[in-house]
Each structure stands twice: as C-alpha cells, then as structure tokens.
Amino acid sequence: MKSYKLSSEMVGRWIAVVVILMVFVAMLGCTLSSRMSDEQLLEVIDKAVRTNATSLDLSSKGLTSLPPEIGQLSNLKELSLEGNRLRELPPEIGQLSNLTRLSLKDNQLMSLPPEIGRLSNLRNLSLDNSGLSEFPSQIVHLPRLEGLGFSRSGLTSLPPEIGQMSNLKVLGLADNKLTLLPSQIGQLSNLTELGLSDNQLTALPSEIGQLSHLEELILNGNRLTGLPPEIGQLPGLKKLHVGYNQLVGLPPEIGQLSRLESLYLPHNQITGLPLEIVQLANLGWLQLEQNQLTALPPEIGQLTNLGQLHLQNNQLTMLPPEIGQLRNLGLLDLRNNRLTTLPPEIAQMAELGTLRIHGNSITKLPPEIEQMSGLKIEK
Hints:
Blueprint: H1 8-34, H2 38-50, E1 55-57, E2 78-80, E3 101-103, E4 124-126, E5 147-149, E6 170-172, E7 193-195, E8 216-218, E9 239-241, E10 262-264, E11 285-287, E12 308-310, E13 331-333, E14 354-356, H3 367-370, E15 376-378
Parallel strand pairs: 1-2, 2-3, 3-4, 4-5, 5-6, 6-7, 7-8, 8-9, 9-10, 10-11, 11-12, 12-13, 13-14, 14-15
C-alpha cells in the first residue's frame, strides 16, 4: 500500500480553505438570523403599539413587505425601513399622522402609495437608492417637509411641481442623471443646502439666484462650463463646490458672495481668476488644483482670512509678492507647477506650517523662507 505525505505548504492551503469556509458559514448564519419573519414583524409592531412607541427601527431586516398593522402606530414619529427589499408600501402608511422622519433608502420600491401624501407632519424623507427612478408626485404637497434625500436613484429630470415644496431646507440629489434643472427650482425660497454632485448638468438656470437662504451649493462631478452671473445673488452662501467640471472661468459676480468660506474648484479648466475674487473677505479655504492657471492676481493678498490655498498641478511660472500678505495661511500647496523661484515675502506668513513645492524647477529657496521656524517644506 502506498503512503502519501502532505507537504507543509499543502496542509497550509487546506487549513486556509477550511478557515474561509467557516467564516463564510458564520456570515451566512448572521445574515439569515437578521432576517425578520412575518410573525416576528407582527410581534414587534404589536409591542410598539402597546408601548406607544415614538421610534421604530426596522432597518436591514430583509423585509419584502409591510403588514397593514403598521398603520396602528399612531404615536410613531420616526420610522426607519432602510436597507430592506421593500417593493411597495401599504396604504395604511398614511395613517401615521405623527410621523416626522421616514427613511426608505436602499430598498427596491416601484412606487409610493398616494396615501403617503397624508403624512402632514413629515419633516424628513430619505429616498436615496430606494428603487424609485422618477420623482413621486405624492410628496410634492407634504406641507412640513424640510429635508429630502433622493440620491443614487437614476433620476433624469425633476418635475416643475418641485417648486411647490416651499418649506424644503435640504435637498440631496447627488449621483443621478440630471441634465438640467427646472426654472421652478428658484421657488424653493427656504432652501439652505442643495446637493447636485455627480449628475450631468451642463448649465444652471438663472433662477438659482432666487435661493436667497442658500448656504451650501455642491455641484462636483457635473459638466458645467460656467456659472451664471446670478450666482452672486446668493448672499448667505458659505460653501460653493464645483470641482471636477469643465469651468473655464468664474463670473465677476462671484465677488458678491461676502459670506463665502469654502470655494472648491479642482479639476476644471480655469485659466485665470477674476479680480473680484478678492472681495471674498471670509474665504478660509480655496482649492484650485488641476486647472490651467498661469498666474495669480496681485490682489490675492487681500484674502487675509485664507487658511489653505491649493494650487498644485497648474501652470504657474511665478507668484506675486503680495501673496505674503496671507498672514493666516497655514498650508500652501504649489506642487507640479513651473515655478523656478518663490518670493521671499512668503516668509511674512506667520501661520504657515506646510509648504509643498516638489514637482517644480526650484533649485534654491530664499533664505528668508529657509529660516522660517516651524515650517515644514516638502521638496
């Protein structure tokens, strides 16, 4: 009889396979155990009814449907159904008259029942990746709705009726397929945050300037070639992010954004900055990397509240001496430009902690910069 000897390498492989299988079985067991049966769901609902529960978390329970008994939760204020496999909601959902927050994200919904329009106290509704690919008309008339999330949904358009949602404060529409915004978007007069990243927008309507309470406008990852002059009519705007677009410049009206704190413009095709940018007295963060800047205006030194300035991957050949007036600047990133020298006035930046200059043709720094205490120079 022949005897076979297993090499240590082969034994090791078998042990690894066994361990992987054990982990897989354990994970599968956890998944199966987390799925809630119909009987368990009814028990949970019954208990919530008996205890007058105001909050119910049914997220990630593997649910494919909800029973009509859900409508008995008359005291419920918050209901989370995210991370399930729901394809529809029962009409009884409309009986939750005290509901203020409803999360339906990460489901497989085909539509919403008309009765959802009866949720007169609903303030926050999450439909992110809910399965809905069209804007549901049922939610337009929710009188108290302030926050709406509808990201990752494949939306290709917004209905004009969206303008009737006048109490909206936060609207998240990122990662969809929107190519334009209806002019009625300007009727959302109470909107403070508008998220439109990763869509296919090529332009913004002039009515965007009517959003007088807007504080955050996020437009990263679209196809914008410019911003409308009306952008300057947003007096409360603090954050404007338009990175990863096709901007070739900025309108002079951007200087009217007196409360702007963060301006994020990387990965565009901007060749120059308007002089009006120096009017942004509250600007603390300016990102302009991966553009086509060849020069900075001397007036850049007037942005005295600037804490970070990102200019890497442009075509800068020199910096104006006035840049030394940025006394609050803590980070200056100049990597991968065409600089051969730096102005000694940089030594006047008392708060400068990091200076990044590699990828240029700088052979020697001014002694004033070399002698700066506490400065980390990344060559």
